[in-house]
Each structure stands twice: as structure tokens, then as C-alpha cells.
């Protein structure tokens, strides 16, 4: 990790001044889950992620971890549309992937995130989804009979990785007093985005960290339990997998 002190301009922080003075153009800024200000700089050949210290006087380059050892920078890279070397870009996925077993700690993390729920019963699943993902909307529609008959309880965890409007749509879902109705509006392309609050941005960032730690890069990703085991799969499930998920 490297830190540089830099000169000051009235309009921007000293850290941002260092980047622009070196010929880079700052194309995006946002508040990281870490509490630092994230800066995306374009030097004409590539875009890179930097952080500004809280006082704005220092520029930080490197990987940031939270108190639990979670790599926060991975989520910031995804949020900025930058993909670490060797990683696959997040994408919507129509094809169901292999089911993998998860450490119980990841399931426990999902239970503590900011989800919204529909359905009843003990058969609980978590769905990490992007509001702009067409296969996520198809999954929502496919789950209607099971949700309405009480065969499954679905807890939805929005992320914002596919389009700029995903942030505002996720914020609209979080702000809704009737998220099930808002999901119906989303499925019908009638939900209007709203300005994300810091709380909403943090929630979607933590959801994205879970997606990364589960080991998938596409949505929808489904977490569920069978025979005492925590499991996950990505992609839209086929009919037989869907039947297994809802216990038919």
C-alpha cells in the first residue's frame, strides 16, 4: 500500500488534486463501505481505483480489509465496473450452475444482511439479484405459486452490478413499504428508481461482498439449505431444480 501527500486546490481534495495533476481524469467517486472515499481515475489507457483518506490529504492505493478480514476493495472494484485481473465480470445468467456447499458462516452472514421477504414457512432461500437482470425477474415470476401457497420463504438481496440504474432501483425496493408489490412493478418494468441513501448503498455493497465470498460472479445466485447443509447455485434454475428448491 502506498500513500502520497499532495498539493491543494480549493475545488477538490488534495488527494484528488494529485491524480488530476498527474494527467488522470477522475470519472467516478463514491463512499466505500470502509468509510473511505473511492476514486476511479482514467489515465487514457486504463482505469484504476484509489482511496482518499478521511481528511482528503492523502491518496491510498491497495487492498482494504474490514475488521473481519473481508476484502472490501473487491466490492468497490465491482461497484466501479472494474474487475480484478483473472476475475470474470458480473453478469446475468440464464443457465443454472453446479450446486456447491457453503460454510455455515456464509449462511449466517446472509441472515444478518438487509433483505426483504415474501412467503411463509421454514423453507427459506436467499436470492442475490440485480434489478436489471432479466433472469432474476423470470425467477421471481417462477416462484409466485410456491410463495403464494406458503411452500417457500424468499429473502431478496439486491446488488447493483449490471447498470447504473440498478442502484436507484435497488434503493426503490429498499425504500418501499410494500417490497413484494414493488417487485411486481420491477417485473413489469414499471418501478421508478430513487436516489440511493448511504444506508442503501452500504446494504447493496455488503450483498455484493456475500456474492463474491460465495464464489459466484453472476445473478441470480440462490442460497438454500438441504439436510442440514448450506448450499448455493447460480443462474435461473430449470424446472427440476426449481421443484427441488421449493420442496415439491
UniProtKB/TrEMBL annotation:
<dbReference type="Pfam" id="PF13098">
    <property type="entry name" value="Thioredoxin_2"/>
</dbReference>
<dbReference type="Pfam" id="PF10411">
    <property type="entry name" value="DsbC_N"/>
</dbReference>
<comment type="function">
    <text>Required for disulfide bond formation in some periplasmic proteins. Acts by transferring its disulfide bond to other proteins and is reduced in the process.</text>
</comment>
<keyword id="KW-0732">Signal</keyword>
<dbReference type="InterPro" id="IPR036249">
    <property type="entry name" value="Thioredoxin-like_sf"/>
</dbReference>
<keyword id="KW-0676">Redox-active center</keyword>
<feature type="domain" description="Disulphide bond isomerase DsbC/G N-terminal">
    <location>
        <begin position="33"/>
        <end position="73"/>
    </location>
</feature>
<dbReference type="InterPro" id="IPR051470">
    <property type="entry name" value="Thiol:disulfide_interchange"/>
</dbReference>
<feature type="domain" description="Thioredoxin-like fold">
    <location>
        <begin position="118"/>
        <end position="243"/>
    </location>
</feature>
<keyword id="KW-0574">Periplasm</keyword>
<keyword id="KW-1015">Disulfide bond</keyword>
<protein>
    <recommendedName>
        <fullName>Thiol:disulfide interchange protein</fullName>
    </recommendedName>
</protein>
<dbReference type="InterPro" id="IPR018950">
    <property type="entry name" value="DiS-bond_isomerase_DsbC/G_N"/>
</dbReference>
<dbReference type="GO" id="GO:0042597">
    <property type="term" value="C:periplasmic space"/>
</dbReference>
<dbReference type="InterPro" id="IPR009094">
    <property type="entry name" value="DiS-bond_isomerase_DsbC/G_N_sf"/>
</dbReference>
<comment type="similarity">
    <text>Belongs to the thioredoxin family. DsbC subfamily.</text>
</comment>
<dbReference type="InterPro" id="IPR012336">
    <property type="entry name" value="Thioredoxin-like_fold"/>
</dbReference>
<dbReference type="InterPro" id="IPR033954">
    <property type="entry name" value="DiS-bond_Isoase_DsbC/G"/>
</dbReference>
Amino acid at each position: 500500500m502506498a500513500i502520497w501527500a499532495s498539493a491543494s486546490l480549493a475545488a477538490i481534495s488534495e488527494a484528488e488534486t494529485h491524480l488530476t495533476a498527474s494527467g488522470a481524469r477522475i470519472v467516478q467517486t463514491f463512499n466505500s463501505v470502509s468509510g473511505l472515499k473511492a476514486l476511479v481515475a482514467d489515465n487514457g489507457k486504463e482505469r484504476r481505483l484509489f482511496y482518499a483518506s478521511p481528511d482528503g490529504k492523502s491518496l491510498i492505493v491497495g487492498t482494504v480489509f474490514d475488521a473481519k478480514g473481508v476484502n472490501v476493495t473487491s466490492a468497490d472494484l465491482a461497484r466501479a465496473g472494474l474487475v480484478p485481473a483473472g476475475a470474470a465480470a458480473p453478469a446475468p445468467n440464464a443457465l443454472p450452475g453446479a450446486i456447491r456447499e457453503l460454510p455455515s458462516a456464509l449462511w449466517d452472514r446472509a441472515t444478518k444482511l438487509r433483505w426483504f421477504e415474501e412467503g411463509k414457512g421454514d423453507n427459506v432461500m436467499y436470492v442475490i439479484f440485480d434489478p436489471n437482470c432479466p433472469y432474476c425477474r423470470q425467477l421471481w415470476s417462477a416462484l409466485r405459486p410456491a410463495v403464494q401457497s406458503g411452500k417457500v420463504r424468499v429473502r431478496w438481496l439486491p446488488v447493483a452490478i449490471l447498470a447504473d440504474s440498478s442502484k436507484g432501483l435497488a434503493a426503490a425496493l429498499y425504500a418501499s413499504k410494500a417490497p413484494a408489490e414493488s417487485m411486481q412493478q420491477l417485473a413489469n418494468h414499471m418501478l421508478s428508481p430513487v436516489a440511493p441513501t448511504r444506508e442503501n448503498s452500504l446494504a447493496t455493497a455488503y450483498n455484493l461482498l456475500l456474492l463474491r465470498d460465495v464464489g459466484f460472479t453472476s445473478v441470480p445466485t440462490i442460497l438454500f439449505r438441504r439436510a442440514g447443509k448450506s448450499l448455493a447455485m447460480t443462474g435461473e434454475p430449470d424446472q427440476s431444480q426449481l421443484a427441488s428448491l421449493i420442496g415439491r
